[in-house]
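User: quick one, fold this
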Amino acid sequence: MSGCSRGFDMSRTGQKATKAALEARHTSKSDDVFADRLVRQFFSDTQHMPTGDNRHRVNHSDKFYVVQLIGLWVNVVESAERVIKYRNRLRWVTFEDKEYELKNQTKFKPFIGRFIQFGCYAYVGGIEVHTEKNLRKLVEKPFIYIASAEALKIFNKLMKMTQEKRG
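Assistant:
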């Protein structure tokens, strides 16, 4: 396992981080105040697959990633296992008392790729993804996308600011 615990800078340089840089980094837990959720984050050398909760389910269930947008980065560390409901030829799961469409695993890389194209970072199962090369290495799994309306507003505002600086 790599990351802040060993004092490495997780930027592209791979150099040892300064004390100030480590203090400024995201902690392993931060809050997404707009979605009223605690955000889990960790770094790893290998992608962690979605895990279940060891409960026996009578109906068909599946393990999936929970994709969350926070500022200009996409957090894909949390996973769950839920019973699947079918409605209008779509698969739905209940997560934190809300229903979300369970998206097919073949849509996972293109979905994350759209954010990376705009210069966003993604953390998928503990791996930092910021290039197409990193994206190709990912193992695709089913996922749900949860983002508050406020998080989308902030994302769009930050994207406009970023594009104005570039061009």
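User: anything notable?
Assistant: Confidence is low (pLDDT under 50) at residues 1-13, 19-34.
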